[in-house]
Amino acid sequence: MKMLALALLGALLAVAQPAAATEAPQNLAVLDTPATVPEISFMDGAGQPKTLADYSGKVVLLNIWATWCAPCRKEMPTLDRLQAKLGGPDFEVVALSMDRKGPDVVKKFYAEIGVTNLALNIDTSAKAMFALDAVGLPMTLVIDRKGKEIGRLIGPAEWDAHDMINFIRGRIAAN
Prior knowledge:
Layout: H1 2-21, E1 29-36, E2 41-44, E3 49-51, E4 59-65, H2 70-86, E5 91-97, H3 103-113, E6 121-122, H4 127-131, E7 139-143, E8 148-154, H5 162-174
Parallel strand pairs: 4-5, 5-6
Antiparallel strand pairs: 1-8, 2-3, 2-6, 4-7, 7-8
């Protein structure tokens, strides 16, 4: 019985380890030391104030984007599928629009492309973009459960690609 338990434990460790040890996907810069994320504030789709502290205890994929940004528009369905696949008590995609025209333009865009799994979040002032040192759009931060930045990707990505999903699952399991 003891041998069976040891064999089972070994098998579980072998299965669990690759997910946590998965290398970062191409273009995702992973920090050696997690960094403090500046406090940012924004509004949800109902006009209620939000901050990243509202997601405390979750791994967060914070995507800074805008409806007028062509690469952002292209990657949005992949973020929606990622949220559908991994979203829940341990993980959240926070798509934060920088559209100055307000939430109606984002709602219209979500309806046009069929986004159904992402919450509407907006910063019409674009202050979050500057606070986070976004050099362009889209820009995405991977934030650990403690609210620290552990990775950053500037530009669009296929967020629902196999390597991305494995990387994010590894971050969820590691925290």
